[in-house]
Structure formats: structure tokens, C-alpha cells
Design a protein that fits this description.
The complex is a heterodimer. Chain A is α/β, with parallel strands linked by helices. In chain A, 37% of the residues lie in helices and 15% in strands. A five-stranded parallel beta sheet of chain A has the order 5-4-3-10-9. Chain A has a three-stranded parallel beta sheet with strand order 6-7-8. In chain A, a hairpin with a 2-residue loop joins strand 1 and strand 2. Chain A is globular, with a radius of gyration of 21 Å. The mean pLDDT of chain B is 96. Chain B is 11% helix and 36% strand. By secondary structure, chain B is mainly beta. The chains are: A alpha/beta, B mainly beta. Strand 4 of chain A pairs antiparallel with strand 5 of chain B.
Chain lengths: 285, 66
């Protein structure tokens, strides 16, 4: 039994050319120090970590950089296009990210977490820009992990545009409200993963953004998501290290719980102890 | 000649390639990507790629992000 459980825990997830066993993908932003970040990444059990592309600080020679704290032999790096508000900008940033990861010879060199944002306040995706960029990057050979809202039709369009994974937001980036619309995420999962709804069971859907607490991760996984991507929930927790451990456990709990098959919900109770053999009468019977 | 690097103006007295510019900033061995006038210049082309007056250069790297 224990052996069987272990096998289920490490069932791999295929994301284009990348195979992972941990279903928690974590970001590297917003940590108080690089040291805390490195410890939290380790504790989260993540095998894939996201990063952003920004200008080099030219006057900070000898300064510490993110890559000093990320073991690129251990983690697959998933560069994002965060901060891009148009398809051309996102495509440009994706290509710059590829150029950097090729130098590192990292397995993440041909993939990108595509974000084309609509505005700075909601950080919700711009649907048209997202689709346009997704098509262009797929044509350019990228494995596109595509951030989107929780709109089921948009999720289907992104899959049809060639994205390797659709990554719907639970709620807006960094807001900590978890899965705001369970039904929408459930619908996306059905439409992308259930054959009866035109889906493929092995098409990966990863809930990305909005996660605040471990139960949010568990809910996403219990709905049938293939993974969860989060950053702020760990980075801005009072104790990021402890939260990283909790998020890891929550992800595994939800993953196993979904596959174990939950009981049906009923309005009334069903007794767990037998009625037969009671030594006292039941009132009214 | 005058070029712009990451939004800052830089005056160069002698001809300069992308590779030499990267050495000037001590970035020759770091994982970074370079664009000249919005065109990506792959690392293997840095030694040949000469910069010209008025060029706009972007040098980017990986930073923390979600």
C-alpha cells in the first residue's frame, strides 16, 4: 500500500519537452532576500521556477544576481513575459528569454510563460493580445505556457492556437483570493481534459495566480488541475519557508484526493456505525 | 559616437562591438541577452557586431518574477 502511494505521488507531468514530478511551480519574485527565496524554492519541492526578464543594472558591478541563488542544474527555468501589454512586446521578451536560457543550457530554453496583460490594476490578460502572441510564439518553435483568465471559451481558443498548457488565473495575480470561480475552472478542465467535451485527458491545465493559502492549492488540485503556479502566497507569507512546505503538502493532498475519487455529496447523513445490535431503542421507532 | 544603453546615453571614442560593450560593463560572462535597435543579437555574433552612432542597445537578464 505504501509503495503504491509513493508511485502515485510521483506520477510525472509532461509539459512539452519538460517532464516534472512536482506539480507545484513557484515564482522567484517578491522575496525579502535571495537567501530566503532559495530556501523557499527548496522547501516547496518545485522543479520548475518562473523568472522575469529585465534590464541589467549597469552600474551595479559585482552585485548579486538571481542566478547566483538558483541551481540551474536542479531547476527548469520558465521565463515569463510579465509586464508586457502587447503581443509584439511579449514576443520580443520571450525571444530575449530564450537567448539567455540557451546560454545556460537549461531545459527551459524553448519555453515561455506567456502573459499579455490588459492593464496594471487588474493584471488580467488581454485576450486578443494573448492569442496573437501565442500563435506567433508557437510558429517560432516555443513551448507556450499560456496565462489566461478563467474564461472557458478563451481557454479553448488558446489550446487551439497551439499552447502546450493553458494556465487560467484562480483570481488576479497576487491578490490571494484563491479560486474565485470554481465553476469556471471546473468548466475549463472539462472542456480541455474530458473527451466528452472535446478535450484530451493528458492536456495540462495549471492554475496560475491568485493563490493565497494552502487550501486554495488543494481546491485547484481537487478540481482536477494538473498543477498550480504561485509566487506571492509563499514570498509574502510571514514565514515563507513554512508556507512553502504547506503549499507542497497542499498540492500533494489535492492531487491525491482528486485521483482517489471523492464520495458523493448528500443532503442527509449516512451512519458510519451499524444500526444492528443497539442496546437502547431509538426514540419514535 | 553616441549610443543609448538601457536608456542611458553613452559616448564612445573608439569603434566598439557588442562583445566589447559587454566587457566594458563586466557582463561578458553573465547570462544576458542583447538587442541592438530592437533586433536580437545572439551571443555568438557579439564579437562581429559593430555598434554605430545612434544605436539603441538593450541588455537584459533574468530577475525574480512569478
Amino acid at each position: 500500500m505504501a509503495q503504491q502511494l509513493e508511485v502515485n505521488l510521483v506520477e510525472p507531468l509532461q509539459l512539452g519537452p519538460v517532464t516534472i514530478t512536482s506539480r507545484l511551480i513557484v515564482g522567484t519574485g517578491k522575496y525579502e532576500t535571495y537567501e530566503i527565496m532559495a530556501e523557499a524554492l527548496d522547501a516547496s519541492g518545485a522543479e520548475v521556477v518562473t523568472v522575469a526578464i529585465r534590464r541589467e543594472r549597469l552600474l551595479d558591478e559585482g552585485g548579486r544576481s538571481l542566478l547566483d541563488f538558483i541551481d540551474t542544474d536542479r531547476y527548469t527555468i520558465l521565463p515569463n513575459t510579465a509586464g508586457c501589454f502587447s503581443a509584439p512586446d511579449a514576443v520580443r521578451v520571450a525571444r530575449l528569454g530564450r537567448e539567455i536560457l540557451q546560454q545556460l543550457d537549461n531545459p527551459g530554453k524553448d519555453w515561455v510563460k506567456l502573459e499579455v496583460l490588459g492593464d496594471k490594476e487588474t493584471l488580467l490578460p488581454d485576450p486578443m493580445g494573448t492569442l496573437e502572441a501565442c500563435r506567433e510564439l508557437v510558429a517560432d518553435g516555443f513551448t507556450v505556457m499560456c496565462y489566461t483568465s478563467d474564461d472557458p471559451i478563451m481557454a479553448v481558443r488558446i489550446r487551439d492556437a497551439g499552447a502546450t498548457s493553458v494556465m487560467p488565473a484562480g483570481s488576479p495575480i497576487g491578490c490571494g483570493r484563491g479560486i474565485a470561480n470554481h465553476a469556471a475552472i471546473a468548466m475549463i478542465l472539462q472542456m480541455l481534459k474530458d473527451r466528452d467535451h472535446g478535450g484530451q485527458p493528458d492536456y495540462p491545465v495549471i492554475v496560475d495566480a491568485g493563490v493565497g493559502t494552502p487550501s486554495d492549492v488543494t481546491i485547484a488540485m481537487e478540481l482536477g488541475s494538473d498543477g498550480v503556479l504561485l509566487n506571492t502566497g509563499i514570498a509574502h507569507a510571514k514565514d515563507p519557508l513554512r508556507m512553502a512546505v504547506a503549499m507542497k503538502a497542499a498540492c500533494e493532498a489535492g492531487y491525491l484526493g482528486y485521483r482517489a475519487g471523492r464520495i458523493a455529496k448528500r443532503l442527509f447523513a449516512t451512519a458510519t456505525s451499524p444500526w444492528q445490535g443497539l442496546i437502547s431503542p431509538i426514540a419514535g421507532e | 559616437m553616441k549610443i543609448t544603453v538601457n536608456g542611458e546615453e553613452l559616448t564612445l571614442d573608439i569603434p566598439c562591438t557588442v562583445a566589447q560593450l559587454m566587457q566594458r560593463y563586466d557582463l561578458a560572462d553573465t547570462a544576458s541577452a542583447v538587442e541592438v535597435n530592437r533586433q536580437l543579437v545572439p551571443k555568438q555574433q557579439h564579437p562581429e557586431r559593430a555598434l554605430a552612432d545612434g544605436d539603441t542597445v538593450e541588455i537584459v537578464t533574468l530577475v525574480g518574477g512569478g
